[in-house]
Amino acid sequence: MPDKHISSQFDSELTSISSQVLEMGGLVETQIQKAIFALSQMDLDAANEVSVTESQVNAMELDIDRHLSSIIARRQPAAGDLRLLMAISKTTANLERVGDEAEKMARMVRSIIESGSPRNLPSIELRYAANLASGLLNKALDAFARLDVNAALAILKEDDLIDQEFDNFVRILVTYMMEDPRMISPSLDLLFLAKAIERIGDHAKNIAEFIIYVVKGEDVRHTSIEKIESVIQ
Predict the structure, then answer these.
(1) Where are the domains of the chain?
(2) Which of 45, 47, 63, 165 is the most exposed place for a label (fewest CB within 10 A)?
């Protein structure tokens, strides 16, 4: 959190809205975990629960946006405070999109279940990637709570692992479809599911970049890891 202000009420407002973001993040993490469970167990009820939670996530995004607009209009923040509020806005948008990706995962699981496809689809690697992405989001939220730039840098590096898992899974899936053409349709559902997982990792990476922006005042999007390391040092 930025330095203390003369106005303790402003400090309280910044703390409150940051807490709202973390609460929203916790709800989105629950969505992802339910989607992973639905995938591992081919559980229709768990998949449906993900979609129900989506409306709560959307409502929280709107509430945080209203709170942000009110703070900016009343306080006219500058420097670090303005960067923090901008980062909160972008983080909230990314969390909402993570919720969308979790809902997409659940939708693909429902499609596989309703198509009557066998349970021996190649989903073990996918569950591993999903847990990686979920863990990355958790680390991003923790780094956001502490405004920890070193943790943010570690997240940027770790995102490459999820990209590698996605590429590996695509190769496995192509082989699987070639061996049994009847599995093309459910395999395509898994492919879309894999892409949703990759995007969750991308959104966690975005949040990490916003943390560095808040603390260092440097926009590190579309920047090499080497350059980001020099910014942090």
Answers:
(1) 8-232
(2) 45
Q: Are 67 and 15 in contact (CB under 8 A)?
A: no
Contact 53, 123 (CB under 8 A): no
C-alpha span between 174 and 184 (Å, rounded): 9
Q: What is the DSSP secondary structure assignment for residue 120, as one 8-state letter? A: T
Query: Topology of domain 8-232, per CATH?
Result: Methane Monooxygenase Hydroxylase; Chain G, domain 1 (1.20.58)
Q: Kindly list the distances between the CA atom of residue 13 and the CA atoms of 71, 144, 208, in Å, as whole numbers in the listed order.
A: 8, 17, 22
List the pLDDT tens digit at each of the 233 positions of the chain: 445 555 788 888 888 999 999 999 999 999 999 999 998 888 999 999 998 888 899 999 999 999 999 999 988 888 888 999 999 999 999 999 999 999 999 998 898 888 876 566 667 778 888 888 999 999 999 999 999 999 999 999 988 888 888 888 888 888 877 887 777 887 888 888 889 999 999 999 999 999 999 999 999 999 898 999 999 98
